[in-house]
Amino acid sequence: xxxxxxxxxxxxxxxxxxxxxxxxxxxxxxxxxxxxxxxxxxxxxxxxxxxxxxxxxxxxxxxxxxxxxxxxxxxxxxxxxxxxxxxxxxxxxxxxxxxxxxxxxxxxxxxxxxxxxxxxxxxxxxxxxxxxxxxxxxxxxxxxxxxxxxxxxxxxxxxxxxxxxxxxxxxxxxxxxxxxxxxxxxxxxxxxxxxxxxxxxxxxxxxxxxxxxxxxxxxxxxxxxxxxxxxxxxxxxxxxxxxxxxxxxxxxxxxxxxxxxxxxxxxxxxxxxxxxxxxxxxxxxxxxxxxxxxxxxxxxxxx
Length: 303
Prior knowledge:
8-stranded mixed sheet
């Protein structure tokens, strides 16, 4: 009875304090793919560049970092299915299913032969897209990508969110209350060694992650993260598309020496660019280098 009373009190606090309240979507458009509404932002005209954000994030992260640096391109930023303000189709979700949905989105939006830019977990999704649909792409730019099945054990809250009875309690009660309190420290680690840009959390609306359905979708990606990567890493050597990887030795989230540096050696048409100043969020303070990589891949010239 005491436990019931405690949980009722916590739940009431969550509801009364507005924790987990719906965060309005930034401007964008929607397209229905496989019965799900997928949010995207489109800017500019020219050859297509498709930008895929990482875990725990949304399309605003890539847009804020790179909008204004992609003149001469048609840039399409998407909220990955289940994250941001996009819906996720029912059923078990994998990078392979996500790549298939993105390929359908390309058809729906008349996106032909794009350069695909993927950050972090978005890099893994981008590689899956290249494995399954490489003939429809021009090339890849991978920013601090998570690629190999040794990223460490998934965080306890991602694993626990999948447990019957306990999972809904975590996603609907504890996450909306406790999640926002961890934002500052989490962003400091993610952006290190660079400082977190002023007003980043508010501009990107990072608290959208703590919406129960969004958190659940993100956890479904991250809890079996090593399983997902193990299913595709043996195929990287078959990707012959022009590929530039951008990563830094000071990345505290995805270790460059274990991911980019190893994978690039197995790919026939890829190269790795590093800089001591770069961490996991390098696209926010080296946007011009991301643009240069896109140009190189679009031209097919990796010299």
